[in-house]
Design a protein that fits this description.
single chain, about 475 residues, mainly beta, 23-stranded mixed beta sheet, twelve-stranded mixed beta sheet
Length: about 475
């Protein structure tokens, strides 16, 4: 079938694409500046228009269709009851130079699926792939499904913003393979050489929970040192047990920053190395309800992760629930620097943060890699093993809201954990869907006050404690 070509200058709703099985029908208003090519159910649009925001409407169903959109200016893609599956390559490929907004129409259900990915060299192995900024919004539902090996859910080379939308992201394919992991199991440092630790060697190993001038000696269970490094595709235990996955099937991945302002976001991944939400330049949760469950880190960034008002549940079955690796984090102790000079790894100002790692030590609910953890507000209940039962914790200076570390709490699957104040008032009750013996749990509540007494209860455990200072450890 020969390609079908037409163009047009666009106004209001510029282009409508109706998918119908193996075909797509394109309607547009006036010819000029916009080139449209149709081959079956595969549509390519190239727009040179800059002053006007190109607006597209997509509807219908195809089991082998795509849209490739290349724009010089901004664009809006309206999804109006769209079911679009691609048998190879991204159903939505956005080669945008300006921000593109994908809008799920009010009351509509839209599903995008990718079943195979071979374009890993160009990193377009995702259900939605964007070259520049991406805004996902609307009062409808958008299901993003990646079933192919090496296929991600959403991938952007720039910032991603989510608001209003009900967004469900699921990946289920395998990774395409593994790469060697640097020199002797260490991560590579540019030239492949070992890092320079300032001639001081390893720091003294102590039990200072503030992590200044050293770090507590962890119990690695005979497996060597834990995994570390800033490559979010890494996973495994010990220096020689590292893995670097090729095209890991992440949920939402951005080389920029990810911001969630509102809406309902659910992310599920099921293969090693597949983070749920990964923002290389940081993640900001301003509002909405976010539920992430993964095998690898549920939430991961190479910069600060901020919780400002969202209700977040992050669960990992084999790694950290929330993992931040800001510059100057893990290796700062090796150079003898004070970790308080690095950027905060995690800042919690409001909302609810339930961060659960079910694998045990050394993985954590909140992992800061020796960079500051700042708690200014919010309801927090983390579950994890920590490094030798001493996870990432705030200090008396960074715990602006009183916080307690409960060491040795026995988590029993589906049995509630309750926190009461001194008058018996219930402050929080969490039911955790897995068991973990002797967890290290970081807990805080807006109701916490220094000098007051509280009680934590489970089915077979009860502990009363007093918050003696801003950050208190209870064994």
């Amino acid at each position: 079938m020969l390609p079908f070509v037409m163009g047009g200058v666009c106004h209001a709703e510029d282009i409508t694409i109706r998918y119908n099985g193996a075909k797509a029908k394109v309607t547009q208003t006036v010819k000029d500046s916009v080139k449209v090519t149709v081959d079956g159910a595969k549509v390519k649009i190239e727009s040179q228009y800059v002053a006007h925001k190109l607006t597209l409407r997509l509807t219908g169903k195809s089991d082998d269709g795509q849209l490739e959109l290349k724009t010089a200016g901004k664009a809006k893609v309206k999804l109006d009851g769209l079911t679009l599956t691609s048998q190879e390559g991204a159903p939505l490929t956005l080669k945008n130079k300006k921000k593109v907004e994908i809008v799920a129409g009010k009351g509509t259900k839209n599903t995008l699926t990718i079943t195979a990915c071979t374009d890993t060299a160009n990193h377009k192995a995702a259900t939605i792939w964007a070259k520049d900024k991406l805004l996902l919004s609307g009062k409808g539902i958008l299901n993003v499904i990646a079933t192919g090996d090496g296929c991600r859910g959403i991938k952007s080379k720039k910032d991603v913003t989510i608001e209003e939308l009900t967004l469900n992201v699921t990946t289920s394919g395998d990774n395409l393979g593994e790469k060697p992991f640097g020199f002797g199991g260490f991560p590579e440092f540019g030239d492949g050489e070992m890092p320079d630790f300032g001639g001081g060697g390893f720091p003294p190993f102590g039990n200072d929970s503030t992590r200044q001038g050293g770090f507590p000696m962890p119990d690695f269970g005979g497996g060597g040192f834990p995994p570390f490094g800033n490559d979010s595709t890494e996973q495994g235990g010990g220096f020689m047990g590292k893995h670097k996955y090729v095209a890991s099937t992440k949920g939402i991945a951005s080389k920029g920053k990810i911001t969630i302002n509102s809406g309902n976001v659910t992310v599920r991944t099921s293969t090693p190395g597949a983070e749920g939400i990964e923002g290389k330049e940081g993640i900001v949760f301003n509002g909405g309800d976010i539920d992430v469950m993964t095998t690898d880190d549920a939430i991961n960034a190479n910069a600060t992760i901020e919780f400002n008002g969202a209700n977040v549940t992050a669960r990992s079955t084999t790694n950290d629930a929330v993992d931040s690796n800001p510059p100057g984090g893990f290796f700062m102790p090796f150079g003898g620097s004070n970790n308080q000079n690095s950027d905060p790894a995690i800042i919690i100002r409001g909302g609810k943060v339930y961060a659960w790692s079910q694998v045990g030590s050394p993985e954590e609910g909140l992992d800061c890699d020796f960079s500051p953890l700042v708690i200014e507000g919010g309801q927090v209940f983390s579950v994890g093993g920590g490094m030798g039962e001493m996870p990432s914790v705030p200090t008396n200076n960074t715990a602006k809201q009183p916080t307690v570390l409960l060491i040795g709490l026995n988590i029993v699957k589906d049995e509630p954990v309750s926190i009461y104040d001194g008058n018996g008032k219930l402050l929080d009750r969490i039911t955790i869907p897995f068991s973990l013996r002797r967890s290290a749990s970081l807990v805080t509540s807006p109701a916490f006050k220094v000098g007051s007494t509280y009680t934590v209860k489970t089915k077979d455990y009860e502990k009363t404690f007093t918050l003696s200072e801003a950050f208190t450890t209870v064994r």
